[in-house]
Amino acid sequence: MSESTVLRLAGVVKNYRAGQERVQVLHGLDFALYPGEFVAVTGPSGSGKSTLLHVAGGLDAPDEGTVSVAGNDMWAMSSRARAAFRRRHLGFVFQFFNLVPTLSAVENVSLPLVLDGVAARTADARALELLQRVGLGDRARHRPAELSGGQMQRVAVARALVAGPSIILADEPTGNLDSRSSTAVLELLRTLADEERTAVILVTHDQTAASYGSREVHIVDGRVSGADDPVAEAR
Ligand code: ADP
Ligand code: MG
């Protein structure tokens, strides 16, 4: 028996063009993620971690191979369908938070729902509930500039969760935080994976952050090195 994957990459090749030169960044990558898994993707700078996350999250097209989320081939969809699919199934968290500076915390969190046509009052209630979930119920009307880095990142996690995604994709989410805020964000991600079965991919070059994962995938030069996949081995 095998639990169905929430994410599967098969034979993914990604090239970038720099002037006349074509650089291959991902070289036929295979990857599977199961519900509730928390995978830490580690590797040296420039090894292709962010590229992997962008391709896995439907932000950047692979040149070869397939990316399926809950069995849906993301690159077989129209770009419009893919954007809507992404908003519903995937949550993104970035190193520099990517909050809208002119919007309050609650407006930042509700934005994906509003873009999806959810009524303002419903979106607002859901956003408030998530801000409470991340311990920021009392900061809902604050703008990003009125929050600490750790608080901004918790707002970003709440935003990533607002549509009830099956996967959270986080790219160096603690890269700009002090150690106490980092711990809070990492514990929050681990709780989501453990208690709500939200799969998490955490890209990090910090070994302490990586230790929060239930599995580590190490990338070197766009390839998985020394595949450590106890989940697959146990199956
Ligand atoms: P990491 O996140 O592991 O530091 P990246 O995935 O950002 O690595 O980058 C992997 C390689 O791809 C690097 O050599 C980088 O210079 C190159 N690269 C990334 N994005 C682009 C781009 N948009 N255009 C050209 N080259 C890129
Ligand atoms: Mg990166």
Summarize the structure.
It is built from 8 helices and 10 strands. With 235 residues, the chain is of the alpha/beta class. The N and C termini lie close together (7 Å).
Can you tell me about this structure?
This protein is of the alpha/beta class. 36% of the residues lie in helices and 26% in strands. The protein contains 8 helices and 10 strands. The strands form 2 sheets. The chain has a 6-stranded mixed beta sheet with strand order 6-7-8-3-9-10, with helices on both faces. It has a 4-stranded antiparallel beta sheet with strand order 2-1-4-5, covered by helices on one side. It is globular, with a radius of gyration of 17 Å. The relative contact order is 0.20. The structure holds adenosine-5'-diphosphate (ADP) and magnesium ion. Adenosine-5'-diphosphate is lined by residues 16, 18, 23, 25, 43, 45-51. The site of magnesium ion has 2 residues, from helix 1.
Order of helices and strands: EEEHEEHEHHHEHEHEEH
Integer-rounded radius of gyration: 17 Å
- Runs in which pLDDT lies below 50 for 5 or more consecutive residues are 228-235
Q: Structural class of the secondary structure composition?
A: alpha/beta
How large is the share of residues in beta strands? 25-35%
Keywords:
235 residues; alpha/beta; 6-stranded mixed beta sheet; 10 strands; 26% strand; globular; disordered C terminus; binds adenosine-5'-diphosphate; binds magnesium ion
